[in-house]
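Let's do one together. I've listed all components of the complex below, 855 residues spread over three lines.
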Amino acid sequence: MTETRVSTLSVTAASAGWWKVLFENPPINMYDPGVLRDFQDLVAKIETDPNLKVVTFETANPSFFMAHIDLTQVGGAAATDDPASSTAPGPTGLPPWPDVLVRLEQAPVLTVGVLRGRARGVGSEFLLALDVRFASQELGILSQPEIGFGFFPGGGGMERLPLAVGRARALEIIAGGEDFDADTAERYGWVNRSVADADLDAFVSRFAERVAAFDKPALAATKELLNKRVRMAEPADLEATQAKFFQVSAGPLVAGHGQRLFELGGQTDGDMERNLGDRLLEMQG
Amino acid sequence: MTETRVSTLSVTAASAGWWKVLFENPPINMYDPGVLRDFQDLVAKIETDPNLKVVTFETANPSFFMAHIDLTQVGGAAATDDPASSTAPGPTGLPPWPDVLVRLEQAPVLTVGVLRGRARGVGSEFLLALDVRFASQELGILSQPEIGFGFFPGGGGMERLPLAVGRARALEIIAGGEDFDADTAERYGWVNRSVADADLDAFVSRFAERVAAFDKPALAATKELLNKRVRMAEPADLEATQAKFFQVSAGPLVAGHGQRLFELGGQTDGDMERNLGDRLLEMQG
Amino acid sequence: MTETRVSTLSVTAASAGWWKVLFENPPINMYDPGVLRDFQDLVAKIETDPNLKVVTFETANPSFFMAHIDLTQVGGAAATDDPASSTAPGPTGLPPWPDVLVRLEQAPVLTVGVLRGRARGVGSEFLLALDVRFASQELGILSQPEIGFGFFPGGGGMERLPLAVGRARALEIIAGGEDFDADTAERYGWVNRSVADADLDAFVSRFAERVAAFDKPALAATKELLNKRVRMAEPADLEATQAKFFQVSAGPLVAGHGQRLFELGGQTDGDMERNLGDRLLEMQG
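Okay, and this is what the predicted structure of the assembly comes out as:
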């Protein structure tokens, strides 16, 4: 297969032990089949590099970390776009995207989300599968807006969000579909910490440089052991939720709300996507 | 059976999808057999209304959300007051009050507590069984004061409190019997959020109107799925705790402390009930 | 065996129901085989005193609550120093130190940590096994610095830390080896509460006096029941982690970092121990 596509994930080695990954998929960093392929390629490299200890994930677009799933791809297109790399179950036996996230959880390196801009739906779910999450106090926004589209979080959100924030706050987040700022997300445990934007890069660098300086066997043993000690998303649960998610999202209700999002200017960089939390009810109209 | 009793729970439909429930049981909103019956009636309606999506629970008395169990009813009276509706196990097979709470947890609508005033003992336990809890920053007070009476939280408190706040904070709360303000309760995860009293009604309305505007199948699927994914109070545990709770509370120790509460002016709207946290040790005298 | 050693744990009975334990092991309150023996003696007394209800643990050194394990003792010496009291499995069947901690968790009294100064490694792990933890806002410092030495938390840290703070924050803490102040520790759930140092003693006294005034059967029933309801560190996990911890810490990597700590002035009261968080990377040099 000839591959001329430029990856949406560019990797810079800050050092042998620390990779900085920059996500860029204009105009609003949506998740689509190409993004999935890029993550599949990247995870394989992360798993096997002998010197790698920490990977930070940042956005090239300070307004959007990862907007949400490309709705033109929901319900079939995303699944059939590139069978060879996209739809076959991954090494974990899970569907492609849950497979990527579980492999990141199990990889012998520390994964760190650096949140600027909006991480809605799959963006939140991606962050929840990372080991550590730091957010810009001014720019970070988190949301699970699926209820406004007639469905509910897939991609492990139903499993990992309540593990991070508890049942009551998970229900508030999912049933309300509201935008949450970084300070509230910190209080809820959705992110580890909300950091003033001017300090965030230095804060992340200090943390990543420390992790990269320590011994990999100690880090790998820590993650391996901790993963056995804590409750994590169960593969069977991830698979069951994913199946139900695609079943519900293939229905006419979701198609109608999705159509309305396009009419309102969604999936472009405009007021609808920037203020989706405030305007989520308009999709019911 | 002729029923002329006025319900302690008045229901106003803010819309087809949102019921506002106001609790009023003068003088201090105690829990008693009549309150139990009213909840039993209400839950049956909540479970079956096809259009209902969200129910908010507020107090008519800004000083007392739900004071505590009526101690004249503990140890027998509460259980025999009205056999037909009060003591028979409910549809879940659990005793009446745990049955009500588990049914609220499982109902395909979102339940929201709006805390003003004191929610002690059963009041806290009721809130803990709701899906979401918002508290007035100035007026909300939470407590599990049972230790001052010689027993420990029943009604699911022993199960749901540590799920919300963790072991260390649950032990601090239960062993100290202290009053907690809303900001501390938010930091502990006892409530979702502490909101300035002047903003609380608007905050709750915005949230409830959103939930009521979204699609019921998505909401129902969310709760059903999330309830399978998170740790919840186990029916067998609820039943075992409840049995032990009634066994201990029937003893002379509890009777003595209860008698002392009456001598000190408890169960009326006065300083003892308003400042029970500060004055809990006086019941030892 | 003649025992002329002065205990590192001095006990003062503030009342029949409240013991104040002061830890003093100059110069920096390290954990060593003598400390273990003192804890073994103390726990046996705590378990059997009929009137005791609450035990508070404080430090005689406001700069160090418990610095860390004495590295001259890791890898063998600590285990063989005094076979009769130190290495035989305790009544729980666990190795000595995990045995002490599990017995404190199960004892029918409330244990309360009062954190001033640095609690690193075993110091943090000791606090995590206590029922309740209060910290001085200005003086309290928590850390799991093991990664800087080439290993990972033993002593139940791998089990109890994520139960208290969740997976993401546990990984941040363990992989970064950073010092955490009391306010951050409160937000993370590492301590119950951060209290201004000037108010901490009065705060702790109020709490301990309350617990000591209530009925012991209610307190004992609370702990017994709550311990069945919440997830706790599993004995089999504690044992497996401990075995792996001693295996890794016996290796050359840890010996090298430990040697470097001594060269840098560690294990004495100086800048290295006071600022271990900032200087942890120097041990790699």
